[in-house]
Structure formats: structure tokens, C-alpha cells
Amino acid sequence: MDHRLRPNFERSPNLQDILGSYGSAKEALAAGNHYIALLKARAENVPEIENAALIMCGAIRKNSNGLKPGTLIQEAYGQWCLGNNVVAGEILKNFQGSSNLVSLLKKPAINVLILYGPHTKHHAPAEGLEGFQIIRAMVKRDETAPPLSDIIPRGFQPDAIIVLDIYGQRLPNDLYDFNGPVIFLNYDFDFQLAYQHQDLQRADLIVGNGAYEHYYLDRIYDCPVSVFPTIILPFEKPNILQTSYKKDIDFLHTGLSFTPIMREKAQFLFRIATIDNPDLNIRIHHGFMDNEKYLSHIRRSKFMPIFCGRMYGGIQSRTVDALINGSFALHGGQDVAIDLLEANQLTIRCSSSSNLEEDVAQNLRTYPEDWQSFNQNQTLISAELEQLFLKPRDRDKRFIKYCLFEVARFNFRRKKTNALRTTSVVGLDRCLFLAKSDKKNRHSLYSLALYRAIENVVNRPLDEKRRDIVKSIFAEASSLFPGSLALLFNYARYQWLIGEKNDAFATFQILIDGLHSHYFEPTRDLVWLRIFENTLELMPPQDYFMSLADDVATGNQESKNGRAVIGATAMSYMAIHHLQKKNLKIGLTYLDRALNLFPNHFPAARLRFKTLHALGEDCETTSEAFNRAVNLYPPFLTDLLHLGVSNELAQRKEMEALSLVKTWVYFITRCTWDREESLPIPESTWKTVRAFLNRLPRHLQNKLKEEFPREMG
Predict the structure, then answer these.
(1) Which fold is adopted by the domain 107-234?
(2) For 249-389, which CATH class?
(3) Is the previous residue joined to 172 through a cis bond, with omega within 30 degrees of 0?
(4) Arithmetic mean of pLDDT over the chain
(5) Which residue in 244, 262, 342 sits closest to 300, CA to CA?
């Protein structure tokens, strides 16, 4: 790896920040942040709360006897999960607000309605569970949910409704007229913030996975939030695979490896992929293998690199995949809830951005002894996995019990409201009709109508009627809201899309002139239009949504951070407008302003480097710009390599130029993509590599000729 290309993949708040946000273990337990309660209880030496937290995290059988009877309500949940309904009911009688759950425990079957989408079908509890009567309804992405009366069979009265991460028009309009609790399982609190906010704000309880999610959800919404790490997908066989496989892969990652919506993961995996060690067999595949191929690759792997900056204090299903199939999980930080485990701590390694390469080397050195220890302790490791990660039907029952218990413990009831959920409005005509008659929601409805109209054009860009509709909606909406950030931003991007770049520049200028004063509804305005492929997209999605979540969670009414990303994106477009007219220095000025406004705007950083290189005036500054762009989003190296190398050669730094080529060759020979177009490799990059081919180490020369024979000539 080139020493200059060591991207920092750490994010905040980290685990220590989240721990510091609670004054005590008791406070964290009461808030439903159970893994944090566990860590703080151990630090404070409070065994009662430690056992209660472990129970709520899923370690039930082992810790249910560790509680002093009648002192903590979590004892009742443990007994219920063990099948002792009568005992659980007697315990609950001692705690205020639990009468409804006591009554439910006396029923032969608790009635639960499950609403879910295709992406959450594996989380949907099965019908016919012992102790429950389950009715399930799946609503697809573009479908509109019918009324509850059409979903619920005659004679079935739900005791609770559990919604699995679907929102807006996919939920019945009369959902919140239901007299019982409405409980949401939430996946991505940030990426869907504006789309899901109006529903989650009406919930009785939000359930999630990790401490990081709780940190934000609890600050964004009025209702209670509860998280437990073992909520992840059920596993048919949560015991360790006994068959021994040849370990011929050192590091394996599959899935969404390199994508702007998971930038920290791309940075982490780039660091792994470019480790300068010819003996390592590293395989990173951007894409999803079929299940059998995926499992066989895990079983052949020593380590699985895993990291998600939004998963502190949680457990990913990928981690459990590794443990079950005999691969050690290598996490890029403290994102995994490792202290929930005992025997399985043998199978998880945690590193950090500051010393990743050193940790990798150390773990490889100790692997033979660690693998031997793993095999000697398989019985303990397997037993722990079986306790925490249940088989499907057992997991389904525990999930429902968790939801019902927590909604009873918090004893929170949503406020009744007749306010319109604007995200539930279907169709442009309906949006526009309501916008004219509903003054309270007028801006939201116009903003939504414009967004959907532009989406229609994106799907059929040459349809003139669809284009006319967009222009008509913007003219009408902007006459009422001339200073709307979302209307201006979305329409300017639309103008750019259809080639009206001069008009787009003018619209962006209006936006920039009032960036900090224009009207903006951060929890309602949709502004991420997926107009271009990743390599051309100027809107950094993850950074925008995380900035927005920070604003809402911290009570930043002006949404300063979210506005900064929008403003920096607008300035990037304005820069391109000048760059395409060969006004390089003016374009550079806009890019400097963009990065001053939002320093992590990686599309602007990429453009800034290319502009500096084209100017050719300051090679050192250009090198710094190159490093910044690639460190912010490492896949840029493929597109920028030839320019980075030529800039080093202009300074007579041949070894630095060779180092860049070597780093990229490691990257491209250890990483694969499902679709070639996911990472197009320009001929200029191949030309640069061919020029340095004979100076590369022999193993890299051979690898290039083996995998890219045509490109190597």
C-alpha cells in the first residue's frame, strides 16, 4: 500500500461516545439500549443490571437465574421466553403499567398482525407459532396498502401490529386508528429519514439492532426505542460446521463492498485489499454470490473483514455467517457487540483505522494457534451461538415477545392525530390536488410532487409530456415558495439532466444565494434523486443522510449540516459548468468553496484534483488533492491513476509514481465485480500500468497477465 493512501474509516459517534451519553447502567437499561447497559453495568460492578441487560440482549437461559426475584421487570421477559407464562405474569403484577401484558399472557393465543415488504420477508414471523395467532401481509415497493379492514380477516382482532420497515403509501391510511400498539422494526434510520419520519413519529415503539441506531432514533423520535443485537436474521443451523475445509483464502468479503452509500466500508476494504504482502490470498467481491458458493467461500477463509460505521453495539448477520462456518470475523472497529459473547470472543478480532495493517499481520501470525484453540473449544462456541441465535420459529417467538414486552415496559401510547401523512399520498394528480387545498402541508406536497415527476422523467428521459409536467409543477410550486431549498435543488438537477445547463446554473445560483435561509423541511423533503451512475453522481448520499440525521438528532433547527451537503453539491455542478467552458480557475474557485462548506464531499474532491492537474501549476498541491480524493472514496483511484502518476512524474518522483501503480494493481487483482460496468477501467489507466509493468514485482506482473491478458497485450 502507498503510505499516502490510508483512508480513515472511523466515524463518530463511536462506542465510547455512546457510552458517555448515559450517566449510568440503570439509565441505559431504562432507555432500552441494552448492550450499553451491559457494558456500563460491568464497569460499575452492578451484577443485577448486567444480568438484566444480558437477558434483553438474548442470553436468557444462562442469566435468568442471576436476578434477585421481583427487583427488575426484565426478569418477567426472561421467564416468558423460557415458557413460564404464569411466573412471568406474577412478576409483571408488581410493576405499574403491565396489566395489559398480564392479560395477554393468560390468552391461549396472542393475536399479532405483521406488515412487511419483500426486503423484510425473512424477518416476518411465521404463521402457526405456539402461543400466537399471526396474520401476515406483504406490501411490495410500488404497491399501496389497502385499509386495515381489508387486510384483517373477519373475527380476528389484533392485540398488536408489528411493521417491518415499510412506510408511506405501503401502510394503511387507517393504521393509526388501531387501538393497540403499533411497533416498528427499523432498518436504516438515516437513508430513509424523510420518507419514514411521519410514520415513526406515530409509533408506540421502535425496535432496532445496535447501540448506534438507538443513539439516533431516541433523539429523533418522541416514542421509546429499544435495541438488542441478536435481532438479526434467524439461522437454520446456529451451530458450528463440523466439517474441516482447506483454508486457502486469507481474507474474504462479498456483498456491497464498494459503494458511496457505505463509504467507510469502501475505505476499510481498500486498506485490506492493498496490503503489500505477496503471500496473501485476498478476495473482495462486489456483488452477491448464490448461497452455496457464498458458504463454501466462507468455509475456505481464515478471516472475513466486516465493518459498518452505523453498527456500533450491534451484530451483523455476516458476523454470524463467519462464526458458524469456521471463519474469524475481522471488524474494523468496535462496531460488533463482542462483550455479549464469551466463548465466541475467540472468533472475533477488532482493529481500528490507526493500526489496521499491523493488526492484520499480528492476526496472521497467531492464526495457527488461534485456529487450534477454536477447534478445541467448538462445543462451547457452538452452545453459545445456539443460545443467542435461534432457529427460525424460536427466533420468531422471541422477537414478538421482545416487542410486546418492551411496549408494555415503556407504557407509552402514541398521540392521536388526524394530520396528513404526505408520504402516503399516491399519484401526482392527488399530490397536486391536496397541495392546492391543504395549506398546512402545501410545501411538502408540492415538493413531493416535483420529486416524483422528476423520477418519472429519469425512468423515461425522452418523454416530452413528462418533461412538461415537471416544468409545470415547478412553475406553480415556485410561485408560492420561491425560496424552497428542495424545490430549487431538485429542479436544478433536473435541468442539468435534460441538458439545460445554463438554466440549471442560474437555479443553483438562486439556491446558493439563500442556502442558509431558504425554506427547508429536513424530515419531509426528498432530495436524493438517483440520476446518474456512481462514478458521475455529484450528490454524496451517505454523507447527506448522516448529516441530516445529526441535525435532527441534535435539534439543529436550521439543518446546517444537511444544507452544507446540498450547497457543496450545487457548487460542484456550478464548477462543472465553468470547467466545461475551459474556465478552469473559476471552476476551481467553486470547488474550493464546496470543500470549505463540506470537507468530506468526495465528488467535489475528485473534480478539484482533476482541475488542478489540468491547470498544471502546483504539483505539490495537486498531489495533496489526489490523496484527498482517493482517501475519501478509494474506488476513485481507478479513474484517477493516470493523472496521479503523471503528476508524480512531473516532480521526478518515479518511486512515488510506481507506488501508486503498485497499490492499484493490488486493488484490481484482489477485487472483482459482478458487473464490469460497476467499475469501468479507462484505457488511460491500462496504458499507465503497461508503462510500469516491468518495474512491478514479479507476482503482480504475473497476476495482471493472468487476469487481464488482453489489456496487458
Answers:
(1) Rossmann fold (3.40.50)
(2) alpha beta
(3) no
(4) 94
(5) 244
